Amino acid sequence: MNVKTPDAERSITYSIQQPSDFLFTPKPIYGFFKRLFDILFSFVCIILFVFPFAIIIVIILIDDGGASPVFVQKRVGKNGKLFKIYKFRTMCANAEDKLVELQDLNEMDGPVFKIKDDPRITRVGKVLRATNMDELPQIFNIFLGQMSFVGPRPALPREVEKYRDSDRFRLLVTPGLTCYWQVTCNRNGVSFDEWMRLDRKYILERSFAVDIKLFFKTFLSLFRQNG
User: Fold this and answer.
1) Are 120 and 95 in contact (CB under 8 A)?
2) Which is deepest, 39, 48, 72, 87, by most CB within 10 Å?
C-alpha cells in the first residue's frame, strides 16, 4: 500500500508493508460507532473544559509569555495524512531551535527523541506533563476527526521518515489520545520495538472493550506520574 503525504516543501511516499504475522482487518461497524462516540464526547469535553483551559492558558503566559500558550505541530495521521496537533505549550519559546543541541542526550532508541530532564521544559510544563494535561487540547483534533480518543500516538514526520517498512502499519488507523504505550508506567523507558509491539497489539485487538479498558486506565494514570 503506497501512501503519498504532502509536506510543506515536498511530497513523501510511504510504502506501508504489513509484517508477515500482521493481518489488518477493517471493522466498519466498530469504526462508525467509535467515530460517533468521539464526536459526541469530544463536544461535551470542549464545553466542559472552556473555563479550565482559560485558566491554564493564563498560567502558561504568566510563567513564560515568550510564545503562544498552545503549541501547534505537524503530525502524521491515518494513511499518512498530515494534520496539525494541538497541545498546551510545556517548553520554552525557542524549544525547537534547541533540539539540535540536545540530540546527543536522547534516551530513546529508534527515531523518537525524549530525555527525562529536558532543560527546555518550563516549571508549569513539568506539572502539565506529569498529569498529562498538556494533551487535553487534542480533543479539538478528535472532534475534527484527525484523531480518536484511543489509538496509536501520532508521530512526527521526521520520525515516520526513519520508520522501517514494518513500522508503518501504524498509519493504517486513526491516531489517538491514548494507547497501550500511553498508560504504561515509565513509558519513556519502553524501547521503540516494544512500543511498536504495543501498537500492533492494539490494532489487531481493537474493539469497544479494549477502548473502554484503555480509556479508564488513562484516567487512573492522571493520578500518578507516568513518564
Assistant:
1) yes
2) 87
